[in-house]
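quick one
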Amino acid sequence: MLFQGPPTERPAPERLFAQTAGRDRTMLTTDEILKQDDHLIQSFADLNALKQQGGRTVISRAEGAYVYSNDGEKLIDGIGGLWCVNIGHGRREMIDAISEQLATLDFYSTFYNFTHPKAAALAQKIAELAPGHLNAVHFANSGSVANDSAIRILQHMNIRLGRPEKKQVLSRIGAYHGATYLAMAMTTPAYADGWHAAHDIVHHLPSVHHWRDGADASEEEFLDHLISDMRARIQEIGPEHICAFIAEPIQGAGGVITAPKGYHKRAWEVCQEFDIKYVADEVVTAFGRLGHFFASEDVFGMVPDIITTAKGLTSGYQPLAATIVSDEIHDIVSGEGGVFLHGMTYSGHPAAASAALKNIEIMETEGIPENVRVTGAYFEQKLLALRDIEMVGEVRGSHFMMGIEFVKDRETKEGHPPEAQIALEIARACQKRGLIVRPLGNVAILSPTLIMDIAMIDQVADIMRDSILEVQAGL
Ligand SMILES: Cc1ncc(COP(=O)(O)O)c(C=O)c1O
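structure w/ pyridoxal-5'-phosphate:
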C-alpha cells in the first residue's frame, strides 16, 4: 500500500473499547472486521462454507474463563482458546512479565554460542518439573515443530551411533501431532488424505479406542491385543529401522480417546525391548490439564525418553513449545562429532520464555494443577452424567480434557452421517446459550480454562444438557 502522508490521529488505546448500550465493542463493527477477514485463511475450516454461509465468530476481548464476541456476547471459553489458556485470560502479571521482558531484551536467538537469561531459566525450570532423566530442552514455537524436533534429534542421535538407517516412526490411528510435513505424517492418515507427507517413514498402529474399535473384547484383552500387535509390527518393519514411537497420553484432536488402562506403560516396555525411544506428545496434557505439570509419570506411570509440550506452557499468551530429552539422548547429541544442524529463529524467544516462567509461577503459587485434581474430577463426573441422554454414545477423557460422542443408534453405535454435522449443531446450540465448545465430526470437545469453579462447571453441564436435548428433539 502506498504511503498516504502523515498518520491521522489514532484513538488512545483505552478508546479501542467503547461502551455502547452497556456492551463492549471494538471501534470496528463486526461487519467491518469480517470484511477485512475475507483476506484471512482460517485453519482447519471448511473455507467454502465460511465464504458461502458465514458463521464466523469475532472474539475481541477475554477475561478469566470468558471471552467476549465483538457484539458483546459473554461466552464461557469451553475450549480454553485451543486447549491452551490454562490459567485463564487477561492475567495482568503475564502481560507485565512479557512487556518488561520486551523492554529489557526484545529479541536474541539461542543459535550458535548465544543464549539469554530467560531461555536459560526456563530450560532449568522445565528440567526441574519434567520427570526423571528428562533434563535438556530445545525450544520451538509450535507443538508441530516440537514433534518434528523430537524425531530430528533422534535421527541425529542414531547417525552419531553409526545406525543411520534407524529413522522411521511408529504412530497410531487417531493421533494428532501437528500440521508440518512430518507432524502431519505422524498424525492419523485422514488429516493428510491425498496429500504428500513424510509417509515413507511413518507407520500407524491401530486405534486404541476400546468403545468403538475393540468392544467385542474386554478392556484387558484389547490391551493384550494392542501390545502383541505393536510387537508384531515392529518385528515386521525391523526394529533397526525404527527410531521412535510417538503417542499422546490421551489422543486429543482425534476425538479425546483414552487408551486402555496400563497401555502406555506396556507400550513403553515394548519400546525398551527393541531400543525404540518413546516420545510422549504432551502438547495438551501437560501444565495442569490432567491435574499435574506432566501426565506421563504422574498419571500414566511411565517416564518417556522425550516429552514434547506447548500450549499450556505459556497458557497461550505467547507461542512456545519445548522438546525435552533424556540425559542419555542429550549426552549423545552433545558429544564430539559435529554441529547440531537444527533450530528456528524464535526458538526460546525472550518474551515467550518470560511468559512461560510467569505462567509456571502462577500455576505453582495458586496450586492450579492441584485444584484441577478436584474441579477437573468434578467436571468429568458432571459430563459423565450426560450419558443418560439417548443420543450420547460415549463420554470420555479426563479432568479438563473431555469429549462427548453422539450416535444415531445407541445399540449399534452407528454415527450420524457427516452431512448432519451433528456436533456443529450442538456447538451452535451451546454458543446461543453462552458456551463455546469445539465440534469434531460426531464429537463435541471441551477443554476449558483450568480456573472454572464448581458453579461454572454446573453451568457448563446444564448448557450441554439443554443444547443436546434441543438438537435431539429436532432430529
Ligand atoms: C497433541 C498435539 N500435538 C501437537 C499439536 C500441534 O501443535 P501446534 O498447533 O502448536 O503446532 C497439537 C495441536 O493441537 C496437539 O493437540
